[in-house]
């Protein structure tokens, strides 16, 4: 299918002139070079097909908002081009452009008008907007009396009143109560089914994971990764932990094309990792609910004062099943000498649904990998849980059921 | 250029409803509401009238009404208030709406049009009130008032053109906004509104004669107080100035449009 959005080699530079007079002279035909150019985005290309959901992730200042502005069209790119087929609607800062003295209804007319709809179209949709916002009589009261959640309800209802070809969802979705968030996601999903393309910008990786089938990672103005959300998010996590002397390596694992990301300073590294059954034999396939032991041998490459070991189980979509570390269990190792070896072993019951799971390991100094990241290893181990003897069930959790049927 | 007009046409409903909202907003939650649009300039007229009528009142030749100075003041004030409101609001229009411009795509030219529409509405109301006051003091308006159908659009065009130019410059050099507050005050006193041009010494008068607002204000005074037609060449001079301003403003707007969001 031909793409609805095509971003080709887009770059944005903010120009600074020695004096603003030079800028004005430029408008009138004189050609004066700007004193300095500051590139915030360069050479970004990707295209998105109808109905695709793409997450845009990156640290603050990576260029996400600049990219979005160029896609929406408020900011012209300095080089390259952005081609869009159809209408773009953005749920950005909610309630922006709302007039506090006007009622919800008047504001709906105003914002929808700003989006380019005429009175008639808005009048047709107003009941639907009012019903979706569910704020009752407040709809006809001044917006200044609204809570921020109510403003967000109205704003979301207007922004999604007409199905756009591309819907841009910014952080904004985190506002509002759980009920309304659900409703929003529902609507976003139904749009997607009808062919709307989603662009989702979020620091909340779980939202990206839940909604997107693709993610792009921006870093310092460049697009450095474009792929499956779980893979890109792993890379992103590795990236934010990256320190001066740290490295990030990405290995293609054989088989299903999964990608392993390893990052860290390498002051401590995972040497061997294995999963064992009750008898201590290494296993790869385990029964639902079976007791297992995860053994991890850690090599210390440099003297380190503190070592925390953490692990995390993820399902094949990258969704976190369980994770903890020895910081939380008060088992921090201290004063380790270079060359020594530590074995961490953890036993648990594999109370997981049937499917494939991966283990990520972390070697850090405190409870997060953002302070000292010795090593962070995604997909360190993959194992499969199969249901051999339990009654059939769905879901990723094994919660032994006891039915009681009374007549 | 055609694209610009097309965009405006497509957004005409939005512009119209924004003008309504703008007027509604300005006086929301005040007891007298829209009356303030008229009361403020009239109060100013009253102040000048009380303070200056003794000094100025006797200098209006060719009038018989004892309130001639008040009428003179009102006529000048009607002209000035449209100019001052339009210019000072256009001045900050892009800066104030920076957030909107950065996030939403819509024809940016609608912003000055909304300001112009709102200023024009309040000016017409002021004009109505002015006629009311004239009748009250026994000054019957003459058919020469029909000249306002030309004078007001010329005033509007000149104000929007100048306001837009300054508004664009203000995005890049914020000093413009600060300076203009002072300049507008000075400009007010450089325009014969509270005084008559006849009291000015010769060299000063040549300076005043460059001021387009002089011709606008005296045009208003001619048709509203004296009941005579304004000199056509004067109106023509301002009309040309207005067209030049508007053309310059549009040319600048088209160039600056792309860069504006960069610095907002």
From TrEMBL, chain A:
One of its GO terms (cellular component) is membrane. GO terms for molecular function: ABC-type transporter activity; ATP binding; ATP hydrolysis activity. This is Sugar ABC transporter ATP-binding protein. Residues 5-245 form the ABC transporter domain. InterPro entries: AAA+_ATPase (IPR003593), ABC_transporter-like_ATP-bd (IPR003439), ABC_transporter-like_CS (IPR017871), ABC_transpr_TagH-like (IPR015860), Bact_Polysacc_Export_ATP-bd (IPR050683), P-loop_NTPase (IPR027417), Wzt_C (IPR029439). Belongs to the ABC transporter superfamily. The lineage of its organism: Bacteria, Pseudomonadati, Pseudomonadota, Gammaproteobacteria, Lysobacterales. SMART domains: AAA. Signal peptide: none annotated. Gene3D superfamilies: abc- transporter (atp binding component) like domain, P-loop containing nucleotide triphosphate hydrolases. Keywords: ATP-binding, Nucleotide-binding, Transport. It holds the Pfam family Wzt_C. SUPFAM superfamilies: P-loop containing nucleoside triphosphate hydrolases (SSF52540).
TrEMBL record, chain B:
It is a multi-pass membrane protein. It comes from Luteibacter yeojuensis. Keywords: Cell membrane, Membrane, Polysaccharide transport, Sugar transport, Transmembrane, Transmembrane helix, Transport. Residues 32-256 form the ABC transmembrane type-2 domain. InterPro entries: ABC2_TM, ABC2_TM_bact-type. Belongs to the ABC-2 integral membrane protein family. This is Transport permease protein. GO terms for biological process: lipopolysaccharide transport; polysaccharide transport. PROSITE patterns: ABC_TM2. It holds the Pfam family ABC2_membrane. GO terms for cellular component: plasma membrane. The keyword Disulfide bond does not apply. It is found in: Cell inner membrane; Cell membrane. The chain crosses the membrane at residues 34-55, 67-88, 109-139, 145-169, 176-195, 235-253. GO terms for molecular function: ABC-type transporter activity.
């Amino acid at each position: 299918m031909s793409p609805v959005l095509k971003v080709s080699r887009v770059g944005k530079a903010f120009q600074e002139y020695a004096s603003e007079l030079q800028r004005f002279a430029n408008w009138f035909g004189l050609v004066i070079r700007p004193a300095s150019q500051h590139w915030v985005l360069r050479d970004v290309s990707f295209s998105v097909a109808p109905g695709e959901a793409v997450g845009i992730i990156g640290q603050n200042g990576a260029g996400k908002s600049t990219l979005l502005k160029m896609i929406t069209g408020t900011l012209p790119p300095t080089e390259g081009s952005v081609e869009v087929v159809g209408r773009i609607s953005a749920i950005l800062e909610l309630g922006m452009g709302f007039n506090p003295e006007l009622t919800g209804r008047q504001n709906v007319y105003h914002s929808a008008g700003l989006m380019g709809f005429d009175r008639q179209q808005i009048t047709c949709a107003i009941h639907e907007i009012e019903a979706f916002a569910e704020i009752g009589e407040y709809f006809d009261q001044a917006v200044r009396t609204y809570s921020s959640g109510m403003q967000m309800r109205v704003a979301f209802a207007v922004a999604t009143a007409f199905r756009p070809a591309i819907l841009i969802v910014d952080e904004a979705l985190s506002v509002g109560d759980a009920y309304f968030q659900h409703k929003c996601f529902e609507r976003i999903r139904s749009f997607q089914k009808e062919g709307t393309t989603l662009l989702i910008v979020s620091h909340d990786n779980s939202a990206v994971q839940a909604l997107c089938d693709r993610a792009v990672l921006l870093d310092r103005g460049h697009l450095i990764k474009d792929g499956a959300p779980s893979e890109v998010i792993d890379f992103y996590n590795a990236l934010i932990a990256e320190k001066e002397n740290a490295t990030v390596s990405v290995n293609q694992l054989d088989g299903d094309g999964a990608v392993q990301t390893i990052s860290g300073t390498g002051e401590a590294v995972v040497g061997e990792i294995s999963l064992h059954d009750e008898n201590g034999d290494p296993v790869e396939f385990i029964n639902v609910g079976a007791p297992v032991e995860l053994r991890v041998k850690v090599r210390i490459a440099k003297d380190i004062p503190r070592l925390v070991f953490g692990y995390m189980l993820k399902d094949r979509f990258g969704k976190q099943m369980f994770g903890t570390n020895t910081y939380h269990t008060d088992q921090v190792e201290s004063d380790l000498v270079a060359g020594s070896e530590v074995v961490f072993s953890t036993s648990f019951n594999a109370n997981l649904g049937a499917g494939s799971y991966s283990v990520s390991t972390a070697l850090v100094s405190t409870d997060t990998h953002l302070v000292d990241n010795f090593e962070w290893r995604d997909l360190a181990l993959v194992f499969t849980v199969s249901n051999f003897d339990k009654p059939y069930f769905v879901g990723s959790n094994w919660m032994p059921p006891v039915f009681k049927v009374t007549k | 250029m055609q694209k610009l007009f097309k965009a405006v046409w497509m957004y005409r409903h939005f512009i119209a409803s924004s003008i309504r909202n703008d007027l509604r907003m300005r006086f929301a939650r005040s007891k007298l509401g829209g009356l303030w649009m008229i009361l403020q300039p009239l109060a100013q007229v009253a102040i000048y009238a009380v303070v200056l009528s003794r000094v100025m009142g006797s200098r209006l030749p060719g009038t018989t009404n004892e309130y001639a100075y008040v009428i003179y003041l009102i006529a000048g004030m009607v002209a000035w208030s449209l100019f001052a409101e339009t210019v000072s609001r256009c001045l900050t229009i892009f800066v104030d709406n920076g957030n909107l411009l950065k996030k939403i795509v819509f024809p940016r030219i609608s912003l000055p049009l909304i300001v112009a529409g709102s200023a024009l509405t309040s000016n017409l109301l002021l004009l109505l009130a002015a006629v009311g006051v004239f009748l009250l003091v026994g000054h019957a308006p003459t058919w020469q008032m029909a000249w306002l159908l030309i004078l007001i659009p010329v005033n509007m065009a000149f104000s929007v053109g100048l306001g837009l130019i300054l508004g664009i410059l203000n995005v890049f050099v914020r000093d413009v906004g600060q300076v203009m507050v002072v300049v507008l005050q000075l400009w007010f006193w450089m325009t014969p509104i509270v005084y008559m041009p006849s009291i000015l010494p010769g060299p000063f008068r040549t300076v005043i004669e460059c001021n387009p607002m002089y011709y606008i204000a005296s045009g208003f005074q001619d048709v509203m107080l004296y009941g005579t037609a304004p000199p056509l060449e004067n109106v023509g001079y301002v009309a040309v100035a207005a067209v030049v301003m508007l053309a310059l403003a549009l040319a600048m707007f088209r160039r600056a449009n792309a860069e504006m969001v960069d610095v907002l």
